[in-house]
Design a protein that fits this description.
single chain, 126 residues, mainly alpha, 3 helices, 63% helix, rod-shaped
C-alpha cells in the first residue's frame, strides 16, 4: 500500500522550509555584517581625521610658543619688561659679584674659602 504524504516524517516535511530559513538568515546576517563593517570603517576614518587635525593644531601652537619663548629670552625684551613693570633692576657692579673658584675633583683637602668682594687674594695669602 502506498503511503500518503501526511504520513511522511516531520524532517521531510519541514526540510525545505528549514533550508530556506537558514539561507535567509545567512544572507541577512551577511548583509548586516557588511553594513556594520562599513559603519566601523567610516567611524574610524572620522576619528583619524579629527586626531590629525588636533595634532596639526597642537604642532602649530607648539611652534608659536617656541617662537614666543625665544623672543622672551632676548635681552632687549627682558629689559623692556623690567622698565614696563617698574622693577628697578639694574646690572650689578663688579663689587657686588662674588667669584667662586671651583674645587678640583682630585683634591681631598679642605675646601678653599670663597673670595669675598673687596678682598685682595694676594694680600690674604701672606
Amino acid at each position: 500500500m502506498a503511503r500518503n504524504r501526511k504520513y511522511r516524517s516531520a524532517v521531510v516535511r519541514f526540510g525545505p522550509a528549514l533550508k530556506a530559513f537558514v539561507l535567509c538568515l545567512l544572507i541577512g546576517g551577511s548583509g548586516i555584517g557588511y553594513v556594520w563593517q562599513k559603519n566601523q570603517i567610516y567611524e574610524l576614518g572620522r576619528q583619524i581625521r579629527q586626531r590629525e587635525q588636533r595634532l596639526k593644531m597642537l604642532a602649530d601652537q607648539n611652534d608659536k610658543l617656541k617662537t614666543a619663548a625665544a623672543t622672551m629670552r632676548l635681552g632687549g625684551y627682558l629689559e623692556m619688561r623690567i622698565k614696563k613693570l617698574n622693577l628697578g633692576l639694574v646690572v650689578p657692579d663688579a663689587s657686588q659679584k662674588w667669584r667662586l673658584t671651583e674645587p678640583s675633583r682630585n683634591s681631598s683637602g679642605p675646601a678653599q674659602q670663597p673670595e669675598l668682594p673687596g678682598q685682595n687674594s694676594y694680600a690674604s695669602r701672606k
